[in-house]
Amino acid sequence: MKNTKDIRIAIISSSFRMEVARALERNCIARLKRSGVTRSQIDIFRVPGSLEIPLVAKKLAAKRTYSALIAFGAIVKGKTYHFEQIANECARGCMDVSLAYEIPLIFEVLAVYDIKDALERAVGTRENKGVEAAESALSMIRTLSDI
């Protein structure tokens, strides 16, 4: 694995449902710090909503300065098809970026049926997606450096 001092991570967070994104960020950063990544090695970029995440991810991946990208947001099902459109296209766009630039893009844009479910995954201690995102990013950095 790369020495943690050489790791740079970019977090891309949706400003919509900010309480979820901020909780995910806090838990992710805390976990990264416990692994030896300093706060100065982590950049945070905010976008208006989840659909804007893939474009910013693409621009960041093209810079080739980051070891991994992490996407945070929450999409809550309403009464229209909009939920599916945003969730599916955000996921597809992020996967496209990851494959095109061969960079880990950890996808924790939570598509849920109730905001309470997103908050439980963002602030909970049993299943915390911010912590899982940090662990996945570090694992992927390690795996790719071994290839």
TrEMBL record:
Pfam families reported for this sequence: DMRL_synthase (PF00885)
Positions annotated to bind (2S)-2-hydroxy-3-oxobutyl phosphate: 79-80, 121
CDD domains: Lumazine_synthase-I
Top-level taxonomic group: Bacteria
MF terms in GO: 6,7-dimethyl-8-ribityllumazine synthase activity
GO cellular component, one term: cytosol
InterPro entries noted in UniProt: LS, LS/RS, LS/RS_sf
Catalytic activity: (2S)-2-hydroxy-3-oxobutyl phosphate + 5-amino-6-(D-ribitylamino)uracil = 6,7-dimethyl-8-(1-D-ribityl)lumazine + phosphate + 2 H2O + H(+)
Family annotation (NCBIfam families): lumazine-synth
Matches recorded under PANTHER family: 6,7-DIMETHYL-8-RIBITYLLUMAZINE SYNTHASE, 6,7-DIMETHYL-8-RIBITYLLUMAZINE SYNTHASE DMRL SYNTHASE LUMAZINE SYNTHASE
Family membership noted in the UniProt record: Belongs to the DMRL synthase family.
Designated name of the protein: 6,7-dimethyl-8-ribityllumazine synthase
Gene: ribH
